[in-house]
Design goal:
The structure is a single chain. The protein is α/β, with parallel strands linked by helices. It is built from twelve helices and 16 strands. The chain has a seven-stranded mixed β-sheet, with helices on both faces. The protein has a five-stranded parallel β-sheet with strand order 6-5-9-4-10, sandwiched between helices. The two termini are 13 Å apart.
């Protein structure tokens, strides 16, 4: 078996194979593979403390950055300061759009549209053509943390970008504020695009935004994206269903609505050896989920995989048996976004160490 590093390419994705140097010819470890980090260590996704994001959103932050470079970046990007900077620009943009509607009469006037657009798991080549067309024609785009920078680079030059991302312990905007922003700009006739990683209606709260707007007479159009489960499974070569191996697939969220370590009490129904489990946002609750899945009958040696920043040049992959997965993820310090696959179909991946399947243990060391 080989170590794999995913490398960036201007035209296509390249997978480079490297022969590992095995220091122990008779290893006695759990069955696992740890794939090396890419040489590109920077996150492909927007982060709440990213100066590059503020520079990209220069319609709001350019002058502030030039005149007052932040000495403490974490203080600079606090939520209250961010919103205070953005509100004058947002009000001005609302005024401009309102005047444009009034001058346009019947031809230019009326209520604008809101598009909920899925951007896929990160690779911009996985965007749909319809999504690309809408992104390039938007007046305003509200985007989440897991919209990759490569996707944002496709936004039209005259569009306004507004970051509304969420991460654990930090919401740049509350969900209610996002609702009101979408409504305010649609009411003055803007073409508003709500960019979401993956698919907008798979763990993206797109349904809540759609319901809020439709109740207020705003037309909402949904443009699906390749959800992370499909896009990253394809990257691994894992069929989510396969005759005789997995007759169903189940998408789970590792988040509890009220927080905490209990993954929504789903383990009893999810512990099906003939199903594939895909866990979104599951890093913090995975140890508890693994214990419960095994308690409810899922074999401890069930093949499993964790993929960090899937489909991007910074992708990392870890393959292990279920009983070892949480410890391996912790030791390798995987971070969000990481998607987790659990089920017999994982062993169908060409990356799975087939030569070790019938042995007690096998480890391919990281180099």
């Amino acid at each position: 078996m080989a170590l794999i590093t995913k490398l960036p390419s201007s035209s296509s994705t390249i997978t480079q194979f490297k022969t590992p140097q095995i220091s122990n010819p008779n290893p006695k470890f759990s069955n696992s593979i740890q794939f090396t980090k890419s040489s590109c260590s920077a996150s492909p996704f927007t982060e709440k403390h990213s100066i590059e994001r503020y520079q990209r959103d220069k319609w709001v932050f350019k002058n502030e950055l030039n005149q007052n470079p932040p000495e403490n970046q974490s203080n600079f990007t606090t939520r209250d300061y961010e919103i205070a900077l953005q509100l004058p620009e947002l009000k001005n943009l609302l005024r401009v759009l309102r005047e444009k509607r009034e001058k346009g009469g019947n031809d230019e006037g009326g209520i604008g549209n809101v598009f909920l657009v899925g951007t896929g798991p990160g690779d911009p080549d996985l965007l749909t053509l319809k999504a690309l067309k809408v992104i390039q024609k938007a007046d305003l785009l509200l985007y989440d943390r897991l919209v990759s920078n490569d996707v944002l680079d496709l936004v039209g030059p005259d569009a306004r970008l507004l970051y509304v991302g969420k991460t654990a312990g930090y919401h740049s905007r509350t969900q209610e504020e996002i609702h009101e922003l979408l409504l305010s700009f649609a009411e003055v006739g803007a073409n508003v695009v709500r960019l979401k990683g993956g698919d907008p209606l798979v763990f993206g709260r797109g349904g809540e935004e759609m319901d809020f707007l439709q109740q207020r007479g705003i037309q909402v159009k949904v443009i699906p994206g390749i959800t992370a489960a499909s896009g990253i499974a394809a990257e691994l070569g894992v069929p989510l269903t396969h005759r005789g191996v997995a007759n169903s697939v189940r998408f789970l969220t590792g988040h509890s609505r009220k927080g905490g370590a209990d993954p929504l009490f789903v383990a009893e129904n999810a512990a099906d050896p003939d199903s594939t489990l895909v866990v979104y946002m599951g890093l913090s609750t995975l140890p508890a989920l693994v214990v419960k899945l095994i308690q409810h009958g899922l074999p401890p040696d069930t093949p499993a995989a964790a993929v960090e920043r899937g489909t991007t040049p910074q992708q990392r992959i870890l393959l292990a048996e279920l009983k070892d997965l949480a410890d391996k993820i912790s030791s390798e310090q995987f971070v969000s976004p990481t998607l987790i696959f659990i089920g017999k179909v994982v062993a169908l991946s060409p990356l799975w160490p087939q030569s070790c399947t019938n042995e007690s243990s096998c480890l391919i060391p990281q180099v």
